[in-house]
Structures are given as C-alpha cells and as structure tokens.
Amino acid sequence: MVSKIAMGLFTAGVLALGLSSAAMADAKASIEAREACMKANGAMMKVMVPVIKGQKPYDKAANDAAIAAAEAACAGWAGWWGEDTKPGGDLKTEAKAEIWTDPAGFEAAGGAYMKAVAAVKASADEASFKAAFPDLGKSCQGCHEKFRQADQ
Amino acid sequence: MRLFTRRTGLALALIAALGLAAFWLLSAPRPLTAADVPGHTPDLANGKILYHAGGCISCHQPSPELAGVENTVPAGGAPLHTPVGTLYPMNLTPDAATGIGQWTDLQFLNAVMRGISPEGENLIPALPYTSYAHMKPEDVLDIRAYLASLPPVTSPEQEADITALPLIRRGVGLWKWVGLDTTPWKPDPAQSESWNRGSYLVNGPGHCQECHTPRNVFMALDESRAFAGGPHPEGKGKVPSLRGLIERGRYTDAADLASALKDGEAMGYDGLASGGMGQVQRNISQLPESDIQAIADYIASLK
Q1: Domain regions of chain B by residue span
Q2: Residue A60 confidence class, pLDDT cut points 50, 70, 90
Q3: Domains (ranges, CATH) in chain A?
Q4: What are phi and psi for residue A58, nearest 5 degrees?
Q5: How far apart are CA A43 and CA A60, in angstroms?
Q6: What is the overall mean pLDDT for chain A?
C-alpha cells in the first residue's frame, strides 16, 4: 500500500517535472524564435537603409528576398507569447512586461509594422520604395520604445 | 560598577544631540546667491536648443489627465517611477499659479543648478542638477526664457509619493557633499571646437553620465569609470557603455554615430529606442546638425 502511494507520487513527480521541462523547452524555443525573427528584421533593415542613405543602388530583388526571409523567420509569431515567456522568469528575454499588460497596444504596434512591410513589398520602383520605407523604420522604433527592455 | 550611570546617559544624549545638530547643519541647502546671477540678455533660440539637449520634456510630460495639452508642452504631472518612489515632475510652463511664471532667475538657477526649490528644500536628484551644475548660468537663463515663451498651462504640483519625504530631502542635502560637483565645465584647448561643444552638451545639459556612468557606494558618479555603462536607473536591465563605440564596431565612425543620434532605430540603428533612449534620441534629433555632430565627435572619442 505504502509503496503504491510512493510509486504514485514518484510517477506524478516525474510527470510534473517532465511537463514543466517541456513547457520550459517551449518557452525557450519561443524566445529563440522571437529573437531569430528580430534578427531577420534587422538583416532586412541592413539591406534597405544603405539604399535610403544613397550608399547602395536600389535593388528590388534584394529587398524582396530580405522581406521573404523576415516573413519566413516570423511566420510563427502569434504563438510565441506564452505567459512563461514573460520577463522576470528563468529565461532571459528583452521583451517588456507591457506586451502582456497592454496587448492592444502591442497588437497595434505589430499591425503598424505589417502594414509598413506590405507597403514596401508593394513598391515597384525606387521612388515608391523610398516613400514607403520611413513608416517601416518608424514601426521598428515605435514598438521597441514601448515593448523592448534596456540591455539585459 | 554600573555601566550606565547618569553621567554616561548625559554623555550619550549630548552625542546624539550633537549628531543631530551636525546632520541638520550639513544637510541644509547651500544655494547660489544674487551675486551668482549674471547680467544677461536672454537668447531664446539658444534656450530652445538647450531645452532639447536637456531633454526636459521627457520627464516633465503633461499628466494624462490634462485634456487637450500637447505632449510636447512641459506641463508636468505625469508620474515618473524611480526606485525610491513616484515623482510628479513639475509644471515648467509660465503659469503664474502652478508653473514657474513667478519664479525669479535666482530661484530658477538654484533649482536647475543646485537642486534647491524656491521654498529652500533639497530636490530629489531625479532632476539631474548634478549635471546641470556644470552649465553656464547664462545658458540656464536662456532655457528659462524659452520656457517663459511657452503657453501657460494650469497643472498643479503634486507631492512626490516617497516615504518620509522631508527626511529624504535632508538626506539629499547630506548626499550633495559627495554627489554634487559644482565645478563649471571647462573646454579642452587641445581638442576641436566641435569636440568641446559636444563635451559641454553631453556633460552639462545632456546629462548623459547620469545613466551611462556607474555610481560608487555613495551613489555618486564614479568618474574613474565615466561612460562605462551601468545598471538601469529604473532598476531593470543595463545602460550600455559609450566607451570605444567605434573601436568595438558599434558605429563605423563619428558621422555614423551622428546619423544614429539623428534618426535612431527608424534608420536601423539597433538599441536606440529601448530603455528610455528613444526619448533621448528624439530630443537630440531636435538639435541643429552641427550640435548632433559635436555630440557624436565627443562620444566617439571616449576610450
């Protein structure tokens, strides 16, 4: 009898451990995916900004490739914001708590970015690209100001 | 033999009284006097530049409860959260009743350069008077003239939400002996005019060191580690070092850094929006290009 209870507790303990480490792995994967997405966005900026500054010639193919890479890296975005990926936990993240306390604001900031990317994607020539780009840059800036922490 | 006689009791009481008296004297504000107010014709344009360099608006934002006040007007009242409590930075508009319209030039200089209110109380050093103390008083008066040109807004002062505030203010007075260096800024003749302008803007109005220089055990800026970065003043995260930005490859050169300060993350310069730097960058972007370049020239030279 006692051994049955002990076994039961042991099994439950193993299960709980397993579950929590699985959740931990999920949280870690989410945070890493967010970071990979942001890296791809940063790489996209590195392709576009030199054109805006006049340091490189306009190259629509390069822009489209960078956007496609960012879209691919960010495809799972909606599923990466679990409660266990908040700041202040065991895992390091530059995400701010405001993402979870102001979901509407975060949504709006993401929406501004999506809209700006779509406009850059739709731009067919240099002039329309240069007209569309500032909103994209501002969307990075605006979201980071509210929802990204200082260096960790 | 009794250890605690009436005599030792008296001696202890005397020591305690002396200690209190010393605390009271040492923690008293030490203000500028009328003789320190320069004869000066205010230059509004200069005041506007230094107002932006000082980033006044970032803390003196209008309270969200003030309907119809543009967020570029320093009407104050918006909460400023600090590790010691919540402050409500005051109304800098010339409103006579709730702003600084009635202040004398000496009162303004004392608040900005010595951290002393018109009532003679020590101000919490969230107001970076520790940096403003190095400014030219003429420049501070120009900022006052610029503020006086703004439309007055009624925005009553709200007491800071800090435990034992009067005692804390006295403590600040004591702290000023180690934390407040009132040496006026001096140019370095070996450096360019632009570098010197940058040095002044960074170390005076810009008060960059308040966050980018770590503090010692007395919470005073540790000048031996100037600009080496430190913990974030709001308690979470770090403030990056400004030393060796070019050598470490963060920026290609001083011109690149100037461009970063002007455009920030909107032009892909990573790390210039979060941790409060977004507001700083927006304020800097209001400066003339030559001043932005000057700041960059100086910062880029930090090793």
Answers
A1: 34-179, 193-300
A2: very high
A3: 30-147 (1.20.120.10)
A4: -60, 135
A5: 15
A6: 88
The answer to whether B215 and B230 have CB atoms below 8 angstroms apart is yes
Complex ipTM value: 0.80
Q: What is the distance of C-alpha B142 from the center of its chain?
A: 17
Model confidence pLDDT, tens digit, residues B203-239: 999 999 999 999 999 999 999 999 999 999 887 789 9
Chain B residue numbers touching A93 (CB-CB < 8 A): none
Pick among A52, A94, A102, A145 to test the B interface (most B CBs inside 10 A):
A145
Q: A19: pLDDT confidence band, cut at 50, 70 and 90?
A: very low
Rounded CA-CA distance B177/B218 in Å is 10
CA distance B244 to B242: 7
Evaluate if residue A22 carries a pLDDT over 60. no
pLDDT tens across B28-67, in order?
Answer: 889 999 999 999 999 999 999 999 999 999 999 999 999 8
Residues B63, B78 contacting (CB under 8 angstroms): yes
- B109-to-A137, B83, B113, B208, B209 alpha-carbon distances in Å: 40, 27, 6, 20, 21
Q: What is the DSSP letter of B151?
A: P
pLDDT score for A14: 47
Taking residues A7-13, report their average pLDDT: 54
Other CB atoms within 10 A of residue B224 CB:
9
Please name the member of B238, B268, B270 whose beta carbon is closest to the beta carbon of A150. B238
Cα–Cα distance, B92 to B61 (Å, whole number): 10
Weakly modelled stretches of chain B, pLDDT under 70? 1-4
- C-alpha torsion angle, residues A43, A45, A46, A52 (rounded to 10): 160
Q: What is the dihedral of CA B291, B294, B300, B303, to 10 degrees?
A: -120
Are the C-beta atoms of residues B170 and B122 closer than 8 Å to each other?
yes
Q: Which of B267, B270, B281, B285 to mutate to test the interface with A (most CBs of A within 10 A)?
A: B267
Residue of A140, A150, A151 lying closest to B265 (CB–CB): A140
A144 known ligand binder: yes
